[in-house]
Amino acid sequence: MPTVTLSLGKDSYDVHVMNGALDRLGDLVHRSRLTGHAAIVTDTTVVRHYGERARLALEEAGYTTSLHVVDAGEQSKSLATVETLASELVKAGVDRSGFIVALGGGVVGDLAGFTASIHYRGIPFVQVPTTIMAQVDSSVGGKTAVNIPAGKNLVGSFHQPRLVVVDPLTLTTLPARVIREGMAEMVKHAAIRDAAMLYDIRALAEETELGFTLSTIERLPDLIARNIAIKARVVEEDEKETKDVRAFLNFGHTLGHGIEAAVPYGELLHGEVVSLGMRAALFLSEKYAGLSAHASEDVLSTLKALELPLVLPEGIDPATALEKTLTDKKFQAGMIRFVLLGALGQPTISDDITIDDLKEALALLQRPA
Ligand SMILES: NC(=O)c1ccc[n+]([C@@H]2O[C@H](COP(=O)([O-])OP(=O)(O)OC[C@H]3O[C@@H](n4cnc5c(N)ncnc54)[C@H](O)[C@@H]3O)[C@@H](O)[C@H]2O)c1
Ligand SMILES: O=C(O)C(=O)C[C@@H](O)[C@H](O)[C@H](O)COP(=O)(O)O
Ligand SMILES: [Zn+2]
Known about the structure:
Bound molecules: nicotinamide-adenine-dinucleotide, the ligand O=C(O)C(=O)C[C@@H](O)[C@H](O)[C@H](O)COP(=O)(O)O, zinc ion
Number of strands: 13
CATH class of the largest domain: Alpha Beta
Number of domains: 2
Order of helices and strands: EEHEHEHEHEHEEEHHHHHHHEEEEH
Structural class: alpha/beta
CATH topology of the largest domain: Rossmann fold
Radius of gyration: 20 Å
Strand content: 15-25%
């Protein structure tokens, strides 16, 4: 099975990618030397598909388990859910020798990871991602967070998982919209580190007509592992985002997060706003960083092949999106740190983007691509 190792000193861990890995979860967890009670955190949709299999795999390896189910969707990434979950963990008898297993998409991973980072001042957790978004991006790297009304991911922590177990076969039950939005982060990885991958993503989009068949899934582990490796190398270089390297993973996210927070959380999926944010960032990259129109088109055509949004949906007020963008974490000392591309695979960070530039980019998003 492809295994990607994140080398982060005492916080190093493996990401195993294998069709069927879910049924080997107990064994893999055991090999990572975790002991104690396994508290499985999942959502109302994922529990129906994979809850029992995860529980069984852990119990067969000798773990006691409990199941903690939150509502499916972005609205569960909240401080209120953290409090409910933490109370449930206490009630279930999860003590400091226990650990959390985050079984689900990026919402469950971010929420469960954040809870693990503060519960009893920190317990270990394992990521078992079940969406493309979570398998190629959110389960790796240790960023955990919840949203608050002021903005996306504004309350969070860095807490690396002890282990990540990726089973691409779990993607067979994903709705097409969730597949598409997850692949936006693959496009991001391609844009910042691996331009050739744009062709593979387009081929996959055409071949599957956006629903994964079993024969496609057979080929997914390599593509997923390639994305994880891109992210792993960036995280190893700049784990806590202090060196202007990890911020590259935020390509398309600054305006994206503003747009995401401009409507009730969950109305637009994360990958959808990253698609919009990437169109805006490509425009600003052409204007300020010398990105060629041809390179820009390469990325845009991939987003189009995935049928991801490139125009602001009706009902999104650009002024609200701008206001929410101005509270993004990338603002420091009143200046926005914006990720641009000088060329495909060559991201840079600019401090020169002004509010007028952001307004111009939002105006662009109201015109057809
Ligand atoms: N921490 C990070 O580095 C990082 C990176 C990228 C995204 N994120 C966060 O991830 C979140 C988005 O994650 P997401 O796109 O996975 O959304 P999600 O977790 O809400 O999952 C999308 C939907 O798919 C359902 N689902 C999950 N797995 C399924 C399966 N196998 N079969 C059927 N249905 C399934 C879920 O119940 C949900 O309704 C956002 O909050 C975003 O901010 C975090
Ligand atoms: O891991 C990272 O670093 C990323 O930026 C990955 C992003 O895809 C992800 O959406 C992340 O949660 C955004 O981080 P934030 O610090 O902007 O909240
Ligand atoms: Zn993201």
